[in-house]
Amino acid sequence: MVKRLVRHIGNLSGLGVLDVGCGEGKNATYLAEGGALVRAIDVSELALANARLAWKNVTRITWEQADIRTTQFPDETYDIVVAYGLAHCLLSPQEIKLIFTKLQRATKMGGYHAICSFNSRAQDLSAHPGLIPCLVPHEFYLELYSHWSILEATDNDLEEVHPHNNIKHTHSLTRILARKPGS
Known about the structure:
The chain is an alpha/beta fold. It contains five helices and seven strands, in the order H-E-H-E-H-E-E-H-E-H-E-E. Helix content is 25%, strand content 36%.
């Protein structure tokens, strides 16, 4: 998804990126290696420790442990916002809407969002004991971006096998690439 976003943008040199729910940093690293300046935020200190270890030679990333729900961002600061796997970890549709409104405000005019989230169409959570995701319809996400230019939007299934338990399962995923109106 992030690679497709880069195809839309082209040169990343000097662009400011906010990667929220960055996990172990694959997207942050890819963008930083392309020349972007990345602020990578995750609530999990363990995930960030793994990211710092795995990507210790990558510059242009600031790793930050924070809860997106209480973190404030100045308006129109970032050229790109990535929220990969964040939304379904929030507590309610209202919280998703509040967070994404905050992220949209933090995005510069003409800036981009890349989002990916489980949606409510079909989830096999057998490989994720204890996970209770917030599942909303694909259309809910499209509505969040109804005033943006949607470059790509898909509602497809992802089949995977987790290495820690070898359980094959499927998730329905919303993926959206969108551009904020303006310059």
